[in-house]
Design brief:
CATH class of the largest domain: Mainly Beta
Number of helices: 1
Helix content: 25-40%
Shape: globular
Strand content: 35-45%
Order of helices and strands: HEEEEEEE
Oligomer: single chain
Largest sheet: 4 strands, antiparallel
Length: 135
């Protein structure tokens, strides 16, 4: 083997040993920072309550907190909490939320996410797309 081929082999081996782990770390580092920048979100559809429970289809929590179900007052979210469940940070699917009481058909409810101090993640008001009805 020539000296040039040997030095190319050493360079390639060095890249594999040292360069790839650093690249992999950078990918993991970037995905974690992107996850922390993902805004809170919740998806819930009109539904028939199953006894005293409703199902929330999806929730993303940027940090640990609560998924809270509020009653409605004049077509807007009310202040009365009718159910809640504690959630860890991350993606959650098909979340069962126990309601304080059985609600009649046609009841309008609102889903929201709060941090550990039970303060809404959204600064101004609850997003309108989180309203749903008990059918």
């Amino acid at each position: 083997m020539t000296r040039r081929k040997i030095s190319h082999g050493i360079a390639a081996a060095s890249f594999i040993l040292f360069g790839l782990p650093i690249s992999a770390y950078a990918v993991v580092e970037n995905s974690e920072s992107a996850m922390s920048q993902t805004p809170p979100s919740v998806i819930v559809f009109n539904q028939k309550a199953k006894g005293d429970q409703i199902k929330v289809t999806y929730a993303y929590m940027p940090s640990a907190g609560h998924l809270v179900i509020y009653g409605s007052e004049g077509g807007k979210p009310g202040t009365n909490v009718v159910g809640s469940v504690k959630l860890e940070a991350g993606d959650h699917r098909d979340i069962a939320v126990k309601l304080d009481k059985t609600l009649p058909t046609g009841t309008s409810l609102w889903a929201s996410l709060t941090n550990s101090d039970k303060q809404p993640f959204w600064k101004r008001h609850l997003p309108l797309q989180n309203e749903f009805l008990i059918e």
